[in-house]
From TrEMBL, chains A, B:
NCBIfam families: nst. PANTHER family: NUCLEOTIDE-SUGAR TRANSMEMBRANE TRANSPORTER (PTHR10231). The keyword Membrane applies. The keyword rRNA processing does not apply. This is Uncharacterized protein. Sugar transporter involved in the transport of CMP-sialic acid from the cytoplasm into the Golgi. May transport important nucleotide sugars such as CMP-Kdo (2-keto-3-deoxy-D-manno-octulosonic acid) in physiological conditions. InterPro entries: EmrE-like, Nuc_sug_transpt. Keywords: Golgi apparatus, Membrane, Transmembrane, Transmembrane helix. GO terms for cellular component: Golgi membrane. SUPFAM superfamilies: Multidrug resistance efflux transporter EmrE.
Length: 361, 361
């Protein structure tokens, strides 16, 4: 069992100092942020730095996330309700957003861009990603009637393609032909790296399983791309304020999920029943990952997010060799090679090259 | 058991008419041939057509070659001496070259470029590929002390990389960065497509096995690239005359191999002992493939050859599904995807785009 990754957010992520620095930047880099791929000069350099920091943070957090999951599996079965853990993640993200906002208000005062109050127009779209994720998670219960777990792991890589396609359609951003080729390679490489003797089951997936997998990939891709659209719509808007509203709806929908799925268990055994040290670590990690995803949406894009989480998957496997004596397969090496080439092609294949110039004094 | 692919050659390949047409072109397209990548206009168009025909021929012949091998395996064990079959292939290629030359002499008369007699300077380099192949085949007997058969199949893909590297070093031809990336992908994709449950053995290959595999890949790559250098050295020279001399040395070295390995069997049971209908088909196929390789060397290059044989490998698997009820694995689909993207990247990544202009009348 693995809980869904939160959509977005931010707050005292890497450290609270970083967040304040990021806040200042988000104010000064408005123009550059909204036009990342062509930004140059000092502003472009800052944006590029910011983009690198949040991407790195997301990669590291996602890797440690998977390692925590392995660790918790080793430690025994999950005894807690997954829905309460999801709610705790949303709550923690909300709390961290508020803390970060509070610090911003103290240093810069309350402005139009960082105030918490909002218009109905701004906030009305915020529940949509949460609803889409809920539908996707609901489908997840039904797909296992047609697909087994290893095959599902493989099918999840369709997310990569759906994200690319929806990114193009919804955000109307162009990828070059070479970047498209790189994206197909990323999907093939990730799948190759995950190959194991039971992977071939996926070829026996019935048509219903395929359809559901494709619908789930589209929903997941849509939620990600739509969140980016929401966050990028007002580049000068403080990301913590945006996240606060996103996470409020995340909390509401998870509350509904608790009532539907785990109401009895929560009433009888308590909200935090079965929580262990690892559970708390996982909740913390998911909250920080969610914040990192949000940062990547604000300062980079969904494509960077997909690359980041894919590279994280490979990093996890390498780290697991040392931590858990994992055995790397030839398929893993081949997949990693393909993913590496894909990352390279994505960067050289930019429609317009973005080289932050060296600072001259 | 699979006999080594001949180096190069030509003659009445696709049909004798084709060869004559090719001959005429090889005379008229001298300049274009020696500068394929930048050729344009009618000459460029002819060259491009010629390149496509020989590439297609090589791909189809290589595919059917592998299918014949599967067929012959199904039909039972090989009873014949592989060395005599190799000699027969060289002999047949030599004979076909002579027939093609004879036809050329009849139609165009004997010229400086198509006469059989040659200078010591020209012919002195011709034995080198044959010697290199012999050394490589010799090593093949020893590598199995360190590497098992499935691992060897995987390691053979190192040929792709060694050919690219030696092509760059020896022929001093440039590949763009994207084409290099495509080449790495080709190697990874071919290997992925061949993955099976026992492929992971390759990771237990001892260092001696790796060293030998690398040396063999370098020798094989060197023989290919060196042959291209020999054939391209005098673009106006008739390819059949060049092949005649190449194959003469092929015959000589295979004669030595017969004496060393199968002398007893040949004396006792006869030269053609154990030959079946399939054996003859395979010899015919190898001879024609050898000729196609030679054509590709003359009118295209080693890179095209590598792509052609890689695509043939995939084609073979697909055809085998229908012929032998083969089961395609997920790894095969992933590998094929990567190879397809590689072919695409190789063509879009050309240092200087070569678009044969549509003929205007």
């Amino acid at each position: 069992m693995e809980y869904r990754r939160g959509k977005d957010q931010e707050s005292d992520d890497i450290s609270q100092k970083d967040v304040e620095r990021l806040d200042l930047r988000s104010l000064s880099d408005t123009a550059a942020t909204s036009n990342l791929s062509t930004a140059g000069g000092p502003k472009g350099k800052n944006t590029w730095k910011l983009k690198s920091i949040v991407t790195l943070a997301l990669t590291l957090l996602t890797s440690s996330q998977a390692i925590l999951i392995v660790w918790s599996k080793r430690a025994g079965k999950y005894e807690y309700s997954v829905t309460t853990a999801n709610f705790s993640v949303e709550f923690l993200k909300c709390l961290l957003s508020l803390v970060a906002l509070y610090r911003t208000w103290n240093s810069q005062g309350v402005t139009e861009d960082n105030r918490l109050t909002t218009s109905f127009d701004e906030v009305s779209v915020y529940p949509i990603p949460a609803i889409v994720y809920m539908v996707k998670n609901l489908l997840q219960y039904y797909i296992f009637a047609y697909v087994d777990a290893p095959a599902y792991q493989i099918l999840k890589n369709l997310n990569i393609i759906s994200t690319g396609v929806l990114y193009r359609i919804i955000l109307k951003k162009k990828l070059s032909e070479i970047q498209w080729a790189a994206f197909v390679l990323l999907c093939a490489g990730c799948t190759t790296a995950q190959l194991n003797p039971s992977s071939d089951h996926v070829l026996q997936t019935p048509i219903q399983g395929w359809m559901m997998a494709i619908v789930m990939a589209l929903l997941s891709g849509f939620a990600g791309v739509y969140t980016e659209a929401i966050i990028k719509k007002r580049p000068s808007r403080n990301i913590n304020a945006q996240n606060f509203w996103l996470y409020i709806f995340g909390m509401i929908f998870n509350l509904v999920a608790i009532c539907v799925q785990d109401f009895g268990a929560v009433i009888n055994k308590g909200f935090f029943h079965g929580y262990s040290f690892i559970t708390i670590l996982m909740i913390l990690n998911h909250a920080l990952s969610g914040i990192a995803v949000s940062m990547v949406m604000k300062y980079a894009d969904n494509i960077v997010k997909v690359y980041s989480t894919s590279v994280a998957m490979l990093l996890t496997a390498v780290v697991s060799v040392f931590l858990f004596n994992f055995h790397l397969s030839l398929a893993f090496f081949l997949g990693s090679t393909v993913v590496s080439v894909s990352v390279y092609l994505h960067s050289v294949g930019k429609p317009q090259q973005h080289n932050p110039p060296a600072q001259q004094k």
